[in-house]
Amino acid sequence: MAAVRPDRARLAVWKFSSCDGCQLQLLDCEDELLELAGRVEISYFLEASSAVGRGPFDLSLVEGSIASPADVERIRRVRRMSRRLVTIGACATAGGIQALRNFTTLREVAAAVYPRPELLSSLETSTPISAHVQVDLELQGCPVDRRQLLEVIAAFLQRRRPVVPAHSVCVECKARGTTCVLVARAMPCLGPVTQAGCGAICPAYGRGCYGCFGPAESADTRALGAAWERLGARTEDLTRALRGVNAWAPAFREGPPEPGRPPSSAATGGRAPRERRT
Questions:
Q1: Is the pTM of the predicted complex or chain greater than 0.85?
Q2: What is the pLDDT of residue 267?
Q3: Which DSSP string corresponds to 84-140?
Q4: What is the CATH architecture of 9-158?
């Protein structure tokens, strides 16, 4: 085994309740990953290696939501041994698809899936990492964009703030010359309230945005609800769409405000800061 260079930052990648898709984005970096390996010591990354390094770690990337009692204790240990902690993906930043159970009861959901639900050891809710420990940066997406992931790691190594777009998917549609499916095709789309990062893939292929990258900073679900209503969609249709991938993101989980009710800060884009300094 080669000796560890003392000048290299120590990187750890952790999985909680998730599908592993965001970790695979890092592995899919291919050539960039080889260069990255020359800049950092990848000390803990079970998706890629069985080698288990001990903390402390300079940077921890965390995928997945907190969905079990064991997850709660484990994320606290990860936080204690991490100088910087970055959550990656919809599960880690907004509870993920599994957070749909937060709108019902665990017993009801488990009974529909498992023959012996009483054997499960699970929390009633699926929540983002930031609900349990201090998070230094949240990187949205389902999965995250690998270019943004590399930018975050590069920014950490260069001791600067990462350059991650704060605009909505609509800007990406305009940048690639895609005709607006909401206006031109009367097709329900979450693009106006969704964080950019995917490259507006769905609208480019004639589909409405599914909101995979979570709420944009200026997400106005009330205005989008009015636009959907003009297309014949019901309020519950938009609420269901918003709760799809990023179910527990504050701006999405509440759905559009009811007529006559003032919107909350979450419904108008209010959310925790993307970056927190420690």
A1: yes
A2: 43
A3: EEEEESHHHHH--GGGGGGGS-HHHHHHHH-S-GGG----S--B-GGGTS--SEEE-
A4: 3-Layer(aba) Sandwich (3.40)
